[in-house]
Amino acid sequence: MAKDDYWHFPRHALADSVLGAFNSGLSHALTLFAPRRMGKTEFLLKDVAPQADARGWRVFYHSFMTDGDESGEVFKLSLAEFAAGRMRTWLKPLTARVSADLLGVKAELGAQAPASTHSVTEVIQALASGGRTLLLLDEAQMLTRQAHNEELLGGLRTGLDINKAQLKVLFTGSSREGLRRMFSEARAPFFHFGTNIELPTLNQDFCQHMANAYQHSTGRPLDADALWQAFQHMGCVPGKLRAVVEAMVLNVALSLEQAVALKAHDEQDEAQYRRMLKTMPPLDRLVLRAVLARTPLFAEDTRNGMALALGSTPPATATVQSAAERLLRDEVITRRDRGQYEIADPSFEQWLQSQMAESAPKA
Ligand SMILES: Nc1ncnc2c1ncn2[C@@H]1O[C@H](COP(=O)(O)OP(=O)(O)OP(=O)(O)O)[C@@H](O)[C@H]1O
Ligand SMILES: [Mg+2]
User: Fold this and answer.
1) What CATH architecture applies to the domain 2-198?
2) Structure pTM?
3) Are 230 and 243 in contact (CB under 8 A)?
4) pLDDT at residue 93 above 50?
5) Mutate which of 9, 174, 242 to test ligand 1's pocket (most atoms within 8 Å of Cβ)?
6) Which CATH architecture is the domain 268-359 placed in?
């Protein structure tokens, strides 16, 4: 399947090094971080899974993105099914039938909760006895959102720990803070897990590849340099570039500039950004602004500036700290390894920047 997808720009080298680290026993768990729409899921499904499959691994993919309150139970049941050999390939969760299966699982859950009688540790044990398996756990930090998943997380940790020779895990997440929470808090279930790897930002080669794929698809040429400019303009988010190129494939009359204008802005996202800003306490908004401008949050100058905007005395360092903590908790900002804050979602960051640019002359 992946081979036929000429739109996919392979990341062979990264997949190779991940599998190499697992194969050699150097690592048993890795964590891949990248912001939204940067290509994590695509990397798992179209690079890692097929390459692992070809090397004889059994591959289990699961995304925690969509199952809300039941994400823990759905995961456990999918894993149990996989361990029992009913889900033989990693491809299956992508098909409509399996969505129906999962809905079935949910229906079963409703009918006979509490669901499975096996603990997650037992399920993992069963899985390990079936041979070498690679678990691709997409957006795993979602599990930490609900307190009732704590037991599951603990069981998962123990199960993986005991069976690390057989079971290797690649976690991904788009929330640095959520992942940090998962690995360091919640009764520290994953403390020793997951060396971090970053998903590199795609470069000019990706744009060349997209231009070639466009030509392959339509028979028309597309200027790869112009595409590269557009890609950078859109914050190097591959999801956005794909949307632009897709729009041009579907509509011959669309120029690159028009397609970018159409797709660089996601109206739904923007409406959500506006709502988010509106409901934020004024101080939090100012902290966000400082993060955006990369000014030191707690410096006297920064706090004086905040006082001016608020029409009050300068907020105390601890007050600014609390606002930053709220933004971290809501995953609006994240903390880099060296303690520097940044906006979590690059699209939101870009939108904020454009808002600032618009409002600058008036301010
Ligand atoms: N290597 C790639 N080659 C071609 N297109 C890609 C590649 N990586 C990502 N894309 C495009 O970007 C889109 C977003 O990628 P993907 O869904 O993998 O991102 P993600 O990081 O998992 O985002 P999310 O946080 O929303 O889950 C894909 O649907 C695809 O169109
Ligand atoms: Mg994803």
Assistant:
1) 3-Layer(aba) Sandwich (3.40)
2) 0.78
3) no
4) no
5) 242
6) Orthogonal Bundle (1.10)
